[in-house]
User: Fold this.
Amino acid sequence: MTEIFGIPLQALLGQLMLGLVNGSFYAMLSLGLAVIFGLLGVVNFAHGALYMIGAYVAWFAMDRWGVSYWWALLLGPLVVGLLGALLERTLLKRLYKLDPLYGLLLTFGLALIFQGVFQQYYGSSGQDYSSPDALQGATNLGFMVLPNYRAWVVVASLTVCFGTWFMIERTQLGALLRAGTENPSLVQAFGVNVPLMVTLTYAFGAALAGLAGVLAAPVVQVSPLMGANLIIVVFAVVVIGGMGSIMGSIITGLALGLVEGLTRVFYPQASSIVVFVIMAIVLMIRPAGLFGKEK
Amino acid sequence: MSWLGTGTQRASRLAWIVVLLLLIAAPFIGVYPIIVMTALCFAIYAMAFNLLLGFTGLLSFGHAAFFGGAAYVTGWLVHEQNWTPELGLVAGTLAAAAAGLVVGLIAIRRQGIYFAMVTLALAQMLYFFFLQAPFTGGEDGIQGIQRGKLFGLIPLENDLVLYFFVLAVFVAVFLLVLRIVHSPYGQVLKAIRENEPRAISLGYNVDRYKLLAFVLSAALAGLGGAMKTLVLHLATLQDVRWEQSGEVILMTLLGGLGTFAGPVLGAFTVVGLQNFLSDRAGSWTGVIIGCIFVLCVVAFRKGFVGELLAWQKRRKAKDVKPS
Assistant:
């Protein structure tokens, strides 16, 4: 069997694949954070909780109501998006004139509430949740065995990420969004309903987190704490990439997932902290982040 | 009674004397000393945090690393190495200061919201370190820590003796924070909070001021955590989790950001509430705390003390108005 630095190629590729899967989740979540931050100026701590809720909606729909995976894939983001719209309308909009720190604190409180409620009903242990029949099994590529579901996760989230990028950077709607980020009052003066745009943006970011949750459900343990642990890594990803750029957050997310996978092969003890170490180094060299602009 | 000053100053000093007398009397009038001691430790933690957020304007989302980290260091030294409690406390505080120096050096390179995220991420890194390090006992933590004898003489196993030791440290920390804030150094910190570019243009080396504030805050937070280890005989992962970093924010916000009494009041409220709820609401406690957090941010941003001061100001403004 082929080996690289004493590691069997199969194991290396397997971990890289897993890293890519994690990286796609990082990318989707940090993309949502970046979109929300751009327009609302809110660092959404509840993003991890929304991701968790997405996973639970999928689990609930499939396990309790016997809904198919594909419908769950639609239902998850929809439910989480609606929840996001509700949160924005009732709570977040009260804070726009204040220091952005209050947005972080509010969403932190929301994260505590969501996490607590789910812990109350489902305990802290994970739920079983199987991937759809069509995506079970694995494909032998010759040099490695590729689990179908993982390949699907990567393809699906990359499609969504680049779709979002295209929408924001290349369409009329995206142009309005970017203009709103730069100067909301001027955009309002041109007759655009900015408050509605803000609500929809938050709902969209939340829906992205929900979708990530549905995609993640079969590969990670579905538990109330799954989002909390992830969101802090995603914050580090956001600091590394800098929140200014959409493409930047996609690339940073994927790259850090791969780095984490590699670390798991060569020095497993450090795999949970490698992203934070990279963050510290990046801050030392380029404080604004790899893709950020110094203000 | 001229030493009490006049007007509002007089009222607040009188209030503090009453509070201190109440705290001294507390164990004799049937209040369970362990709860008050725990609240005092959290009050030290919250005062340390307030020094940073309330008086310097820096939101650290990673103070649990210093609070819980110092708890581990003190617990390990006292439990495994048989250090005396006062040396254990000093070592824990110094360890927290050292960690604060490293985290601070990295975090002050970004401002505002990024500062919060960086501190949160670095604290999470320390959490994973404590989870894996051999000396912390992993998920179990360090349990059954003996309090030992203070200076090798005074036995702290007696709750009443420990109570007055904790109270003395609390008063010392309170006076220290008061001194720091009212010193010329504290004035510069407030200037940074109000307008950082202006402070820079006046020639202050803002980063050095911020770093020192961060280290001081980390050290005092560590002192609170180290003390809590002695009070409760244990050091656990619970104290280094991100929820613990959030809790201190809630205490400070609820009591009143940037006030002296606020963090103390907030710490007593939250600890008291948790104690009250843990019997009655069980695992709903976290949800209730979250709800209070949300309410506090949406509708009660000044906190107890802030609202009180605002009310006083309004009343005074009414009095001054010519009739």
The interface with chain B takes residues 43, 91, 94-95, 98-102, 104-106, 108-113, 115-117, 119-120, 228, 232-233, 235-236, 238-239, 269, 272-273, 275-277, 279-280, 283-284, 287 of chain A (CB under 8 Å).
